[in-house]
Amino acid sequence: MKLQDKRVLLTGATGGIGKEVAKALAEQGASLVLVARRLAQLEELRALLPNSERHHVLALDLTQSCDMESLNEYARGCIDGQRIDIVINNAGHNQFDLLSRRSAQSVSQEIQLNLTVPILVAQSALQWINRPGIILNVGSTLGGIGYPGYSAYCAAKSGLYRFSEALNRELDGTGIQVLYLAPRTTDTSLNTESVRRMNQALGNHCDDAKCVAQHFIQVLEKEVSVLWIGWPEKLFVRINQLLPAVVSNAIRKQQETIHHFIRQMHKNV
């Protein structure tokens, strides 16, 4: 899909990846509906974008049903007579820790934001998205590889992957495509200092958010159904599907390092 003059709704717009995606889309000539919780940050981002007057901001917490309805009312309103062509479910959050150390509330909130919210946004979009249209769900490499310290996040992102696959098949022939993009570790504020040091100790690759944003453009323009970013991570995802014991053995060698940084994290609290 050509992005020039397309209207794109982007959730999680003020996050590390979201900001760069917004900039990349605006540079392609798209007009944006930027969604995040804090109005001041949204306005700051809009001011940085080319043709800032073309873009709209919505300060919403999509984990709240009233704010989800506000999003629907806006989208159904067809602002300026132009319907939304692309929905990008980018909002997300994770907490690195052992499941046994986490509160039930934090687990529930993580599942809600990373899985339930994009499902409900996609469901709502079926009522108002333009056709042909695209719903792009942003997952993670951890949606294909279960990793210690991220059990709830892995569950949510793997669920989002299968949801995207199922809904794309469900909508075959309707003019709406559902795509899935899975970044690997990205250098954003989502990663705590403990996570950064752990990734360095393990030699895990970490992508620049600007580089990741270019993959968003590629997926949308070429209408790629599924894209896993990064090598060898995309290979590990495939191996994990076919020979999970091989990946388990590889991760087992990292266990002591992973647990060391979790222990250090709790000492610093």
TrEMBL record:
The keyword Oxidoreductase applies. Keywords: Oxidoreductase. CDD domains: SDR_c. SUPFAM superfamilies: NAD(P)-binding Rossmann-fold domains (SSF51735). Signal peptide: none annotated. Residues 6-188 form the Ketoreductase domain. It comes from the Bacteria. The keyword Oxidoreductase applies. It holds the Pfam family adh_short. Coiled coil: none annotated. PANTHER family: DEHYDROGENASE/REDUCTASE SDR FAMILY MEMBER 7B (PTHR44196), DEHYDROGENASE_REDUCTASE SDR FAMILY MEMBER 7B (PTHR44196:SF1). Belongs to the short-chain dehydrogenases/reductases (SDR) family. This is SDR family oxidoreductase. It comes from Vibrio porteresiae DSM 19223.
